[in-house]
Amino acid sequence: MCVKEKYICPFTDFGFKKLFGSEPNKDILIDFLNELLKKDTGEIIDLNYLSAEQLGRSIDDRKAIFDIYCESSRGEKFIVELQKAKQNYFKDRSIYYSTFPIQQQAQKGGWNFKLNAVYTIGILDFVFEEDEADNQVFHHEVQLFDKNTQEVFYDKLTYIYLEMPKFNKTEAQLETHFDKWLYVLKNLEDLTDRPKKLQEKIFAKLFRQAEIASYSNTEYNEYGASLKVYRDLKNTIDTAFDEGRTEGIAEEKAEVAKKLKYAGISLVIIAQATGLSIEQLNKHPLKDGWVRAFGG
């Protein structure tokens, strides 16, 4: 696939992990998380990347594959997910994913059940269906809440969702460092140069890492394949939702998965792109039974 843009699209699997999920670029992720979470966590000094593939407590339990999973020096856990297209039960999935870092903190013996904080962050390239009429609120921060006292009941479990299509500030309207981060995420692929308002050192590094011309042939080809997956999947699933054909989404996913597997894309990438599990992809490979197995 020929790529015409100057900078990568951060909503592709390759682009997101290139910018935020590699050890040399850890400072980019730290800067973003500090802007997003600083009022809750204090400054994050360092992070350790953890395995993106998480197993249940027994061999029969389902797996979870995170985009990025990391831990701060204070033991806080961060799941950072990029969601490219609307998906049935997306909120359910994010809650389910948060159970893995909770269970992993269990200790044998006389453990007192004290937990470190867990943050699940969803950067969304779509708008929640129930929020489509509200164009003002795009930054959702959710914690366990006591309806009677109107107070937060438990502050160590936080879900943050950014509905990126709602962020429409122009470069001239950028005021805070967080504004600049959202602007980069929303517009990076369409930019031809680093905007004058984004002259901070961290953005200079991000734009260097995002410049496609600097990539090796292998990286260029991997990005091209990832970009095609992103565009095909987003067009297919978003169209299905927009037309109200929710019953056909499983069939659409199966068709996308088939094409990707025929193209030689790894099952891990297909699972991340479609929201299907590795188990589902292996159970009915390239057969009509896929649609029934995926809930159609």
TrEMBL record:
<dbReference type="InterPro" id="IPR010106">
    <property type="entry name" value="RpnA"/>
</dbReference>
<dbReference type="Pfam" id="PF12784">
    <property type="entry name" value="PDDEXK_2"/>
</dbReference>
<protein>
    <submittedName>
        <fullName>PD-(D/E)XK nuclease family transposase</fullName>
    </submittedName>
</protein>
